[in-house]
């Protein structure tokens, strides 16, 4: 996971996404846009598709880990 997080940080820096966390979170979790393609996400945030894929995979894994943790501590 450490290597994936390092790559995640590199992508954030490469595309200057530091100030777009809220916008990305809203886009990924929007109920208005239930489904979106990798291409749509990449175009929306001006990313190469391979970087968009890594970014989304890391976000989804983090959400899964958080949900698992919250279930365990209840």
Report on this structure.
The chain has 74 residues and is mainly alpha-helical. The chain has one domain. 72% of the residues lie in helices and 0% in strands. It is built from four helices and no strands. It is globular, with a radius of gyration of 13 Å. The protein starts with a helix and ends with a helix. The mean pLDDT is 91.
Fold blueprint:
Layout: H1 2-14, H2 21-29, H3 38-44, H4 49-72
Helix pairs in contact: 1-4, 3-4
- The dominant shape is globular
Largest sheet: none
The whole-angstrom Rg is: 13 Å
Helix content: over 70%
Q: Which structural class do the helices and strands define?
A: mainly alpha
Percent in strands: under 5%
Low-pLDDT residue intervals, each spanning 5 or more residues: none
The total domain count is 1
* Straight-line distance between termini: 25 Å
Report the count of strand segments: 0
Key traits:
mainly alpha, about 70 residues
Summarize the structure.
72% of the residues lie in helices and 0% in strands. The longest helix is centred in the last third of the chain and has 24 residues.
């Amino acid at each position: 996971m450490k290597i994936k997080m390092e790559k995640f940080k590199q992508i954030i820096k490469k595309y200057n996404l530091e100030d777009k966390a809220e916008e990305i979170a809203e886009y990924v979790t929007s109920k208005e846009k239930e489904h979106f393609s990798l291409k749509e996400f990449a175009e929306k945030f001006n990313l190469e598709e391979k970087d968009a894929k890594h970014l989304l995979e890391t976000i989804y894994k983090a959400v899964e880990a958080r949900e698992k943790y919250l279930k365990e501590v209840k």
